Amino acid sequence: MIKRFLLLAFLLLAVAGAKGQVISKNVQRADRAFDDNNYKKALDGYLRAASEEAVTAHLARQVGSCYRLQGDMTQAEIWYEKALQQPDHTSLDYMLLGFVQKANGKSELAASSLNKLYARQMLPDLNSNGSNASSIMARFRSGFLSFRIVPISINSAEADFSPSICRDALVYATSRFDRELAHLDRQINPQQHLSLFTARLSNNGELGTPFVFSNDLLSHFYTGPIAFSPSCDTAYFVRKKFLKARLGDEKQMSDNNLKIHRAIYNHGEWIDQGPVSFSSETYSVGDPAVSPDGKKLFFISDMPGGIGGADLYSCDIRSNGTFGEAINLGTKINTTGNEMTPFVAADGTLFFSSDTHPGFGNLDLFIAYPTATGFDYVTNLGYPLNGEYDDFGAVISPTGKLGFYTSNRPGGAGDDDIYKIEIEKITVTHSVEGQVVDEKGSPVITSTVKVMEGKTLINTLSTDAAGRFTFKLDDGHEVSLLLDRNDFFPATATISSYGLGLKPTQIPLKIIMKRDVGYTLTGTILSAADGSAIIGARAIAYPPDTTKAIVGVADQLARLNFKVSKETDYRIRIEKVGFVSKWFTLSTKNRERGELNLSTLFDTKLEPEVKPGVFGTVTDAKTALPLPNVVITLSSPVLAQNLKLATNITGKFTQTDMPEGDYSVTIEKEGYQTLNFSAVVGKQPVNLNSNYRLALELKAGSFIAVGLVTNKDDNTPLKDVTITLLNKTTNEKIQNRTDEYGSFDFKVEADRIYILKLEKDKFFAKTQMISTQGVPAGMFNLNTAYDLKLEPIVMNKAIEIPNIYYDLGKYNIKPTAALELDKVVTLLSENPTIRIELSSHTDARGGAAQNQQLSQKRAEAAVNYIISKGIAVSRIEAKGYGDTMIKNHCNKGVQCSEGDHAVNRRTEIKVISF
């Protein structure tokens, strides 16, 4: 068990501290044999003492350790249990019992013993659930490599262990005694000596006859294990001066420390350069391993400041041959127990052995994967490599298909034996189940998800109606996800399949995308002369590429509202005919998203251009409301022909570039009394309201219906809307069109019923009944009593029909549903060019096939009802979607209120052509 020397030294020191003040001479003699590693002689002495005197925890512990170090784990368990039955037992006894219970396959008992040790805060990092007796084994994870173990012929009756590959040779440590050693010291005890042997290694993994690696490195000292640089011209090997150190002999205890030596190969010989700089007289370093690029040296040590007994460390190998600082590999790798025999494979995977990470007993082999900050995802390599005995010292060929390791399992040639490993990589494919939501938890649909491995794009996905996406990911990969969608900030995520085990796994992932409200330019454009609104003023935002200018137009209240791009420098021009334009410079770089109010940032008032002319506002004399579409006629001898103007929706009119002179002004509108007066136009524009009351009196008994038609989505005025007014009494039909401000007016009669129809291309037509019954004569503003908003026709936009209810499991049309479907009939009648799909949806309860069938029958029942009302069958399609388009979180298996389920039981229509 020579390879356990360092671990044994740690245990011996702990035992030494636990000895009582009075120890019999029998036990003292057995202790000396134990300290000399003569475990058979020590066991005989301890058993003799146990038969003659009271058994103490120390005596029982030593008997158990003799059995353990000779491979008899059954007897070791019995005696460690006896040690714990004694009043002078220590925390060490829980550790020793737990280790041998693991070796004997008693995982639950081992966990219970070790948890008692955790309770004493000896090993707090090993188990996050100290109260759960099975938690240590619950942390076990299978590896991803399939191994076939093959015995080899190089093993001797002594210990052969810790192989290393150097070009076409296998080099290993051994305690065998061959004739090459005879000239050094005929008194060498093979059980207390190590040398380095080698065997030729063929391409197919066959080994030749072993022989001494190098006479240059032969020594009566303990020599081995060894590791090589990638070019095999530098070797790092372990050397120890004495083996027979006794407690209390500080000089020999110091000489007993393991040191790593460096040797250089030069002209056919290995030159020992002595211990490396981080070796010490006060602690041990051993088990060297060199990284595949030759830039780091890995080793074990019990140096101060570590985490456990033997810890894994690394240091830089500098280009000038010196070494960097020794860095502990951290708590992901090291435990409060012992980690040994590191090896770094060509792909960067760290192989090592541990007696404390969850395993099968004694030393087990583990791997850890490289990360940006070190190593992580520690994984037990499992059967058949690991068992109830010591398994350690693995080395893998550069191809990754062949390896060697050491075990003292039964059936070998001697103590520790080297075995060949034939390796096959097992690929396990996992499924990443992702969902993208916004800050409120609502699904983000049609988001683009790019799957990147490093800088390589390996997949492009799009989220569905529930914000979900899925893709396959083989084990041992780490990918990054780049998410993008209009009106959202880009998002990223990282997902790893390292250490998930051999069973395909669903990897859940939820990503939150933050909404990007973008930049909205707002403002109000007013006249600097009188503060009046400048309707139709334009704000033009010019980016560096001026061909991509963005234009915003002031509405009827002179308000601007339009989007601009992020991270862009703009020059902005505000203009309106008759006013002096203004320029501003504005950048969206490094600005918080949201509204940018130009009128707050700058002075957006425009100065009127000084041109001869007239302007004014015409109102209703009774209500003082502005009158649109009033005709103003200007005549004068200085004009070749009369000028005719019209007021806009705010009752304003203006005319510039008029010759100076005397003018006759006539203001007239149907239903109103005509107004006539004279005016003089000079060099400055004349406000006719300053000298005249531009208020029109209604003719006796006149009714004027006025209205403003707007877009339902953004409330902007709609021009060129066809307005048809049908008098129900006389069947007289008159038509009008909205002006550029969306306004219209009609002269109507008292006590009449009219049918008003609004029509515009690419908008749903609207028909309403209006009445003048009980309405006093004068101006009749339709917007105060009627909805004059038109809804744009958007292809495939779902429009829910409310109040469509069905009895449970049925699909017949109920009277309340018929009333709502009549509205669809009206919609189709008013819009004779559109075709629609009528769809029915269920909630997620019940079977998917049943829900699909029921929703299809309900949709067909609704369509049949609409066809029965005279709508052509070619204009409407029935489609049942079952539970495939759930609107909220109430998917299958989710507990929801009845109200939340009801959101998903709906009937919708959408335009599919027009």
Automatic annotation (TrEMBL):
CDD domains for the chain: OmpA_C-like
Pfam families linked to this entry: CarboxypepD_reg (PF13620), OmpA (PF00691), PD40 (PF07676)
Start and end residues of each OmpA-like domain: 794-914
Q: Which GO terms describe its cellular component?
A: cell outer membrane
Superkingdom classification of source = Bacteria
Please provide the record's keywords in A-Z order. Answer: Cell outer membrane, Membrane, Signal
InterPro entries, per database record:
6-blade_b-propeller_TolB-like, Bact_OuterMem_StrucFunc, CarboxyPept-like_regulatory, OMP_bac, OmpA-like, OmpA-like_sf, TPR-like_helical_dom_sf, WD40
Where in or outside the cell it occurs: the entry states: Cell outer membrane
Under Gene3D superfamilies, the record lists: Carboxypeptidase-like, regulatory domain (2.60.40.1120), OmpA-like domain (3.30.1330.60), Tetratricopeptide repeat domain (1.25.40.10), TolB, C-terminal domain (2.120.10.30)
Indicate where this protein is primarily found.
membrane
For the keyword Signal, the answer is: yes
The protein in question is named WD40-like Beta Propeller Repeat
